Every structure is written in structure tokens, then in C-alpha cells.
């Protein structure tokens, strides 16, 4: 076993909440690493909260200044022999008899040796699962971070970080892991709402082509005959309840006569109606024209819930061609509702709905015109776990994300976050995050993250593994994109010349 050092006696430790040890010469111990110490009744596992240096020769400012003004102190005293590294430890739990983990209720004795814990013990202690999704590795320990599928996803996952920190990259790693599972291990259906068309690259990768289906935004249709009055009122927040009732009546009438019809036919029917007030008719016709303009509504739904929810496969809803956020919200609201209802009636398999830019779809603000999809996503967040309908919310603005939805995400993976308001928000909405952990989030580098919540027993830092699938061209560096563009222009000119 790798020995790290010896527990020391300090002003207020060792106690059950913290202790320190002096690091053995030549030994590397870093912040975030795990350590093990024997105590009565078992082995205490702790995390290095900080590492600092001390040297008694430099403790008194007056003598340091005095000596240094004549000659460097190292020429007078053996100062380097008196430099020590000390690590502060936060005890996490005790691995006792019967291989159970207990709370720390007793401190280690000064003088006890500190070791690197056994890898199997770290894994067990942190709640990792040998058969789980392999997202990366624990920094400084050669331990693979495999997260149990149920613990990670059943009660929803949130991935939070500033732009460019690696959120989509991590999602791609998780997708690869989901696609690797076989039937016996249980396969989910995954649906990704891809606002930037980044995940389309999976379909260009020969290893994945048969497991990915891309649904471009322009092909998506919301079937008018299938809409309930509740959905209509969501899409048309300006209608009064009485107007919604009238519209629902027209829809019912149309449905009783035929199975397929479009907005045009509905408008015609309203215009020729003699019972409704003309003011109501005018309002309904005008909002329906407005809906028609979106080009989203048709005589039947496309795609169907069962087409986008297929076990062991990924469906990418490519919304990159939509500029209007209202249209994006309508599509998401409609698909999410169909998926949730399908799951409630057990008509489709357990699914994971991945929402990129989640703050656009489940915003904290309830302003009706920008919150069309908010209701249904919050419903899935609250009730989804009972029906095995899971969410993965991704956002670079956690503070704008609905607190209801975020607090229902029982696992958070946090990559680099720098905005103090966002950090504060994360500190309040992620359980079990201590101050020393929060302080490290703004210093995280691309490719490392923090996992907190249900997915693990204790907050852990993780080095995200390399992805195996092809990366989207959208992530290429600025220089390359600029070069590609000018080459494209040159080629077009040449083509035009040779044509003439
Ligand atoms: N674990 C990683 N290993 C290596 N490179 C990574 C890793 N994570 C991210 N990157 C690189 O960092 C860049 C940004 O990553 P990514 O697109 O995932 O960021 P993002 O958080 O999704 O940003 P945005 O909020 O703008 O969508 C990518 O070019 C990617 O190659
Ligand atoms: Mg992204």
C-alpha cells in the first residue's frame, strides 16, 4: 500500500470533521485525492481538502526581514530541511466490519499512518458500479468512474457549465455508453433535442449510423386532430379560457367527422359557423393563421412517439434550422408530451430525453409566451421517475433554469462555471457540496467535472474520458473555420470560371 504520511496533532484536530497529516518526503499528494487511515472499528476514508507548506524558519516576519537583508537565509540556515507539506483532510466515512460504510464518529490518533486507499474500496465507497456507464477516471487514482444507470438517470441528470466547458462532449460520451449496452443490461431509448445540430455527426460515423436517426426540424409536424385543448392553450397563451373552449369545440366537431384535417380546414369550418360570436371567430381565425405561419401543423403527427423512442437507439431532433424560439418550444412541448404520455401508457420503452440549452425550454420565468414547453418538462421532472421517463438537462445558464426542474435533477455534473451568481445557485441547488468543492469549480479545466448527488455517494471530481465517436465540425477552432470558408469561396469561384 502506498504510504502518504503521518497524522499530526494540530490546534483543533484530529477531530471527526477534520484532521491533518504531514506528507512523507518525495510523496505527491494533491487536493481532491482520497486517503485512508486506520481508526477504531475500521478504516476512515477522507478527501484532501487542501495542501499547504510550512517552514518554521520563515514564521516570524521580523527575523526573516532581518536575516534576508544581509544574506539569503538558505546560506545561513538549513532552511530546506525544515520545509514540510501538510494536507488537510475532510473525513467522509468509515469502512467498517461487514464491508459497510458508516459515519465518522471517532477521530484518528496523531501518529497514525495515512495511505492511498485500495482501488476497490474507493469504488465501493463512492458508489461506483462495475457495470455502469464509464464517463471517465478519478484524477490521481487509477480508478474508472462507472456510474450506475438507475442512480444516474432515473431521477434525472443536469449538466451545468459555461459555454465551451465540454457539456456536449460529455453528453456524447454518455450516449456512447448507452449505445454500448446490450439487451440483457437494459437499453434505453434516447431522444436528443439538438439545438445546434451537433449530434448529427453520430450519423456520419460508420460505427453508429445504424443506431442513430436524425429528424430535421422542417419535417416535424404537429397533428392538429390530436391536440387537446390544454395543448392549444399552451401554444396560444393569449386566448382566454372561453376562446380555448370554443376552439376545442370546433376541434371536437371536426374530429368526429374525419380523422385527418389541417389548419386550413379548421379555419374554414370556423368561418362558416353561425353559432359563435363573430368577435370570437375573428380572434380564433387570426391566431390559427398565426399558427399556420409556423408551418409546424399538419393533418397528423410526424414523427410518432414510437418512431423516436426505440430501445438501444438515439433519435436526434435537429432544431438547428429553426431561429424562432417559439417554434423550438412548440416542438419540444409537443414531443415531450407525447413521450411522457406514451410512457405513462407503457406504449414506448423507458427513455432519456436530453435537452440542450435547457434554460430555453424550462426557464425560471413563467412568462407564458416564452414558456410553452415549461409545464410539460416540469411535469416530467416531477413525475417522470415513476414512469421511467428521465431527463438530462444541459445548460450554461443554471440561474435561468427553472428551480423546480433543476431541483428534481438528483444528479448534477458540473464542469467549469465562473459566474459567481451561477456558482451560488449551484451551491444552493446541489446537495452535499461543501465550500472547498465550490471553490474548485471555477478552476476546473476543460475535460474535468464534478459529480454530485444521487449518482455517487460523495461529490467526486472526474476526468472525462475521450470520446470514440466523431466530433461535430461545429467545434473546430476559429482559424480552421475561417480557412475552410475562404477555401470554399475560392473553389466556388474556380468552379464558376471553368463553367464559363
Ligand atoms: N473531455 C474532453 N476531452 C477533450 N476535449 C474536450 C473535452 N470536453 C470538451 N472538449 C473540447 O472542448 C470544446 C468545447 O466542448 P463542448 O462543445 O462540449 O462545450 P459545451 O459546454 O457544450 O459548449 P456550449 O455551451 O457552447 O455548447 C470541444 O471542441 C471539445 O473538443
Ligand atoms: Mg454544447
Explain briefly what this protein structure is.
The chain is an alpha/beta fold.
Write the layout of secondary structure elements.
Layout: E1 3-8, E2 19-23, E3 34-39, E4 42-55, H1 61-70, H2 73-76, E5 83-96, E6 101-102, E7 113-115, H3 119-126, E8 133-137, E9 144-147, H4 149-154, E10 157-160, H5 167-180, E11 189-194, E12 212-216, E13 222-223, H6 229-235, H7 241-257, H8 263-272, H9 278-294, E14 297-298, H10 305-308, E15 314-318, H11 325-344, E16 351-355, H12 358-361, H13 374-387, E17 389-395, H14 403-408, E18 411-414, H15 420-429, H16 435-441, E19 448-453, E20 460-464, H17 478-499
Parallel strand pairs: 10-17, 10-18, 11-15, 11-16, 12-15, 13-14, 16-17
Antiparallel strand pairs: 1-2, 1-7, 2-5, 3-4, 3-7, 4-5, 5-6, 8-9, 8-20, 18-19, 19-20
Helix pairs in contact: 6-7, 8-9, 11-13
Bound molecules: adenosine-5'-triphosphate and magnesium ion (MG).
The major β-sheet equals: 11 strands, mixed
- Work out the radius of gyration: 29 Å
Number of helices: 17
What percent strand? 15-25%
Distance between the termini: 77 Å
SSE class: alpha/beta
- Tally of distinct domains: 3
By CATH, the topology of the largest domain is Rossmann fold
Helix content: 25-40%
**SS elements, strand count:** 20
Q: Determine the mean pLDDT.
A: 90
Shape: elongated
Strand order of the biggest β-sheet: 9-8-20-19-18-10-17-16-11-15-12
**What would you say the CATH architecture of the largest domain is?**
3-Layer(aba) Sandwich
Low-confidence stretches: none
CATH level-4 homologous superfamily of the largest domain: P-loop containing nucleotide triphosphate hydrolases
Highest CATH level, the class of the largest domain? Alpha Beta
- Bound molecule kinds, no repeats: adenosine-5'-triphosphate, magnesium ion
